[in-house]
Request: fold
Amino acid sequence: MKYFLWAFVFVLVLVSGCGQFIDISGVSPVQPKFIADDLQSDTQYGIIETVMMQPSWAYSYSSMEDLINRSDLIVVGKVTRILSVENASQNEFMVLPITYYKFTIDKVLADTDQYKSGSSITVYKTGGVFEGKEYQLQGYPPYNPGEQVILFLKEGEHADSYYAPPQGRFLPYFALIL
Reply:
């Protein structure tokens, strides 16, 4: 009887679990992705390959307080559009795309009083579509036009540009943490 019960539970788990695997990153590394030409300057409508990259971060935040203290600007807003993609690699045999996004601020949570609601800023991140392939850092998905996010930003290398570290991107329903 005991073995029958365990066999029944095993079969139940096996049957109920089949077909339930979901790729929470939104992009499977083996499935091609269809994109529109207004989101990408290198290709017109077409199928592209996704290349998943494994990052190794020099710094990670130990707490929410640490993330807040190390941020130059904290905002809630919407990704308006993709501005451009460039290859930041210094090696001619390697591709390391950087994508620049236009981001419209809905609410400023912390900064130096430089920005107000309705202001636009440029936010960049590693990854993007370059020469027919989409490069993505695992666990660090691209921004999508129309997506509303909370960003903990660091000042970038160029004037009026910022980047969000890997742990610096949240969906709006996490606003209660702040």
Notes: The domain at 26-177 is CATH 2.40.50 (OB fold (Dihydrolipoamide Acetyltransferase, E2P)). Helices lie at 2-17, 64-69. The radius of gyration is 20 Å. Residues 2-17 form the longest helix (16 residues).
